[in-house]
Each structure stands twice: as C-alpha cells, then as structure tokens.
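Reader question, answered in our methods column.
A reader sent in the components of a multi-part assembly and asked whether the whole thing could be modeled at once rather than chain by chain. We filled in our standard form and ran it. Here is what they sent:
COMPLEX SIZE: two components
ENTRIES:
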Amino acid sequence: MAEPAQEDILYQGRIPIYPRSVQGRYRRIKWGILILAYGVYFLLPWLRWSREVGPQQAVLFDIHDRLFYLFDLVVFPQDMFWLAGLLIIAAFLLFFVTGIAGRVFCGYFCFQTLWTDVYIFIEHLVQGERPARIRLDNAPWNAHKIVKKGTTHLLWLLVSFLTGLSFTLYWGDAPQLVLEFFTGHAPFPAYATTLFLTLTTYVMAGLAREQVCTYMCPYARFQSIMFDQDTLIVAYDENRGDGQAGRAKLGKGLKTREERTASGVGDCIDCGFCVQVCPTGIDIRNGLQLQCISCALCVDACDTIMDNLGWPRGLVRYASERNLEGGKTRIVKPKTIGYGLILLAAIGMLVWSVASQSKLDMAVGQIRNPLYVVLSDGRIQNSYEIKLNNKSEHSVDISLVIEGLANAELDLGKIDKITLDPQANLSLYVLVKLHPAPGETGQIPFHFVARTLNTKPQIVDSKEALFSIRSGS
Amino acid sequence: MSEVKQNKPTSPAVQTTGHAWDGDIQEFNNPLPRWWLWSFYATVVFALVYWVFYPAWPVGRSFTTGMFNTITFKVDGKEKTMHWNTRALLVKDMQEGEESVKQRKHMQEVAAASFEQIQSDSKMMQFTRAVGKTLFADNCAACHGAGGAGVVGLFPNLVDDDWLWGGSFQDIQTTLRNGHHGFMPAFRKTFTDAQMDDVVEYVLSLSGQAVDQARVSRGSVLFNGQGGGCYYCHTHAGTGMKSVGSANLTDSIWTIANVPAQKDIDGKRAVIREVIRNGVNRQMPAWKTRLSDNDIKILTVYVHSLGGGK
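And here is the structure of the entire assembly that came back:
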C-alpha cells in the first residue's frame, strides 16, 4: 500500500556509472560493428569518384544545386520520394528485427551506443579500469586528477570535433572544404554545423550517456509494444540462477554445483560482474527493464565467470520468454512474415524505381485560365506548360511533337531548337491549335512526345494531355 | 536515474505516489533528472538574452528594438542602417542575395536583346515569361483576367490572335506605354429602326452569318456610304483599322457583342444592335509612367506569346 516513509525527492542528479570492461563473443561483435560503422562514416567523404559533370566525390549532398550524388546515382529533387521509400524500409526493418531480436539496434548499432562505447574506451585508456575510475572521481582535485580528467575530456572533444567535421564533409567537397575550414574561408554553415555536432556529441556521449536511452529516446518507450513471447531479450535464467533457495556466493559447502543443487541454491554466485559491466547501470537479474539496451555485455560477463568455474554458459543469455518457460522460440510467426513481406515489397519497389530512372523527364501542365480560346479563323487553341528535365551529364537536344490529335498544329513560337544543359531543366509554353469537327465538344486525350536527338540510345518520354473544346456553339 | 531498480512495487527503495488503484496497481513517483530542470532554466535565460538583442516588447506606442543588432542596406545609392527587422533583411537580400544578383543579370540580358532574339531563345523566354506572369498578375489581370482572357463587352481577350490595335511587338509595346481610348460613336439617333436592322444584317454577312439578303444589300449601302459611314473606321472590307482600334468584323472573334454565345439569329442581331445603338467607350491606362521600360518590354513579350502575337 502506501509508502509514506520517504520524503518526496523531486529531482536527482545523474548517478555516475563506471562500466567494467569485459571480453567475450558479444563484445567482439560490438567492436566489429563499431569499426565497420566508423570506417564508413569517417572515410566515405574522402572517397573519390570521377564524373563528367559534377563533383569528384563519391557521396556528396549538394544542397546549393539541389543534387545528391551517390556514386553513379544522381538524385534530383523530383526523386525525393526515394527518401520516403528509404525511411519506410528503415522503419519496417527496425520493426522486423525488433520483433525477432528485441533492442539489438540499441545495443549494437545506435550511434549513441557507438560513440558512448568509444568514450568509455577513452576513459578506460586514460583513467584505468573501474576501481581506478571510481577512486579518481572520489579523490580531491590535485594535479594528477586534473591531468587525467583533462586528457580524457580533451580526447573526447577531439573525437567529437572529428565527428562533427566528418558530417560536414558530406555536404561539400572534402579536401577543399577541410582546407577552407582551417584557413577560415569555409562558408558559415560549415562552421555552425561542425560546432553544433561537436557540442552535441560531446554532451551526449560524454556527459549524458545512458540518460539519452532512459529519458530522451522514444524507442525505449515503445519497445514493449513490439515485443512478444518469442522475442529474444537479454534474460537471466531465474530458475537456474536462483534455484529454490535463492542465490548464494561461493562459500563453505557451496563450491561445487552438486553441493549447491543439494542445498537448493542456484548457479548464480552473486559476483555482481553482470551489474558492473552494464552501461546503463541495471541489474539484469531483476528481469527485463526499461533501460536495458540489449548489448549483452552482461552475457559476456556471466559467460566469463561460468567458464572460469567450468560450469555451462548461458545463465544470462539471449532468450525469449517462451524459451525461459521451457518452450522453443518461434522465429517464423505472423509478425515476422508480415514485416518481412512488406520489407521485400518496399525494397523491390525502391530498387526498381532507382533502376528505371530515366535521363529525360517531362511534365505537362495544361493552362487552365483560359482553358481554350477561339482564333480568328475559327480554330480552337489550348496552351500548355511543358517542363523538361535533363538528368544526364550531357547537353541534349530535344524534339517535341504531339501525337494522337488529328489535324492539330503544335506551335512552339519561334523556338526551333530546344537544348537542355546538363542536369538542367527548361519550361516551355506551347500552343496547340485545332479545327474541331462540327458538333465536337468536350476533351480529347492526346500525347506530347519528347525525344532526344543526340543521345545513344534515344530517350523518349510521352505524357498524356487533354485538348478542351468549348461546349455548345 | 541509475539506481538499481526493483520492479516489485512492494520494495521500500522505490517511491510510489502512495495510492493503489484496483487493489494493487500503483504508480512510481521517480525523481526527475536534475539536468532536465536546469535545461529549462537555461531556456529562460536564453529568452532574456533574446529580448535584449532582438525586437521584443511593445512599449507605449513603440517597442523595444533590440540592442547591438542592426542591418545596413542601400536606399537610392546611400547606405542606411536601422535596427534589426525582417523587412530590412528582405531589402538587403533583394540587393545582395545570390538569387537577386542572378535575376538582375537575366534582366540586363533581356534589356539588351531585341524582341526577336528573346523570342527565339528558350532560356530567355522562360525567364521573361516567369517575370511577365507576375507583372501581368499585378498590373493587368484586374481587367484582362489572370490568364488574359478578358471580359466580353469590356476588356479584350489577349490570348487569341485578333488585335484591335495591332499585334506586333511594336504595336503591343505602344499600347502598353500610351494606353488607348476605344471609341465608337452611338448610332441610335442616326438610324431608323428599319435602317438599324439593315446595318445589323450587313454586319452579320461580313462573317457569313446573315440570313435576310434584302436587308444585307440595303445595309451595305448604309455601311459603305455616307448614310452610316461605318467604313470610315471599319473599312470597306470590314477588317478594321489598327490606328483607330476598330474591330475586324469578318472573323470569328467578337469582343464586345457576344455573338458566338447566342442561340439563334435573333439573339445575334440583338447583341449587335446594342453595340451600334450605344457605341463603345472604354479606356486602357498608360503604363509608361508606372512601369519601367524593361518591365514593359517583358510584358510585351509575355502578351505577344500568350496566344497570337503577330
């Protein structure tokens, strides 16, 4: 019932966590993913790519000219819906993976985790293992502490500066931008972006750490919706670890497994290693908690202890609720199948859309005010705005004709050559004139057809339009 | 938020709100993180600093304009500095902004080119039409309509290829610069009813819509002779004269009498009769004092390209 004993504490400061280092299978996987991710993130802007027109950088997001370069692919503003497709795929991939394996994104790939991991590594490097770090924090401010702490924070700032700078390099030519940056000639947004990301990386990975996962990240909050009985979570096998009588440290009469089973005591020797290595500071033996990011360092920790004792691993392991209760984890279930199918469909559509991007793009807009006009010789005239987009790296000459409208004339004014610059667009105003058949009214569908004249192979784009004839007469 | 937490609510280490719903449902009352509280205080400090540097509070009939925060821009060639405000930012952007500089370059290019050169260059046409569209909407659309279709009986349709005052570039430019006074005398006192019927029938015959041939021949005498004198402005052929802005009566386009919309011959006769009886008296303003030469040039190209420039 009510707990009136404690005074209400409204706010509390962050209680520092000093994760102990651990070695093991999952630690190695985490390092592997981190090195791969860092490699891509920091080195990709420097990768060169030869293009006839455009920057020589493989991956560059040119905001100013509204073109995104991804190796051989150039993304135009009209192709922005690919980004929507990418986000949909990312979301469903997340749901798909979470349904099967829980919060592995958090523990292995989330940038917050990756950078916090590196920052803890730096701390370890400079200040030592967990006991040494605790001692340093509790020590008074002497020269030794200043040097240790100062070096740590300087290295943190260096990493965050490199992070911020690398991000900025995706938006401009890397070698040139770096040169301009350090000679004071870079555009203002470059400095602003780098400064902002330096500060946020330093604060988030150095100071905030698990507070992000616990308080700020929405994913932590809705994880419970995506889990089910078959989702893999980091779980402490309570039956095995606690037994009937509970946990007990190794002691007299409780050294071997046989002795312990006889006393009704479980396999957990209450060493606390799993608690010490946890980067969010929880005790996994209490069960799945809000703060658990599924990084499995506690699994590595317990496995290490079990190996030392010669006992079987898996006291803390990836398991599903069903598995803990004795059943078998189902990986293929309606959720998996559903998300999997949607994912395949979305990926298929995106790949098809990107592969079938045409180098010439035409849009036809009918001028609706006025919809039609009667000419002095009795013909009806409609006007259209044709937008042509050249997505190739060369100049193209275009021929524009109409098809499917009998006895009609296409009037392009005095423009006899339509030429488009590389990666440029053009807007044309054209007139279509027609002698209507007697009694003909309403709208007649026809096509505008644009053909390139100087490309191999010829690119054709055909778009439907409507010719409006007034009703009555 | 890093204490070891139990999720069994009966443990004394966890604060609950002290109430139990439905027997055993309780609610945690965990302390908020202190950094959260101090971030909130920081936003208050930010607001105070912002009030100092930017316009913020009304004071009497004026307002606090912000300190140490000015914008400098050019007015009539002289530099002017004033407190930060978005209107000055706009003026400055229009003068120095990258896109403004580009636009000025295009404008100079158009100003230096001839009408024919602009007409045959797709890029210059694209720019001219874009600027012309805005100028037209601001200045011309009030009478001639957003698309230039005009209003039958009042304002000419600029989209077709029939021009009262001439459809060449020069003619359109003259129209824009000097405006026009469209005038046709009222003939209600000149003709008797029977004579009126004859003239109306003759006018219809010019575009091949007449029915009563007897009236046509009598009407022809009046139209082409001293009795009516219509040929003075409309010419013997009935094709009109661009120097006085008289209409071409032989084609399918009617700007004042809405003949095409009439269902039968009597309707057509009626609307033509009205025009002859009452005459025409309408005005188009002169724009040479209101728009720059370059703007008029752009509008000329725009109107010419709408549907039927000659």
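What stands out: Chain B touches chain A through 51 residues (CB under 8 Å). Chain B has a mean pLDDT of 90.
Send us your own complexes using the same form.
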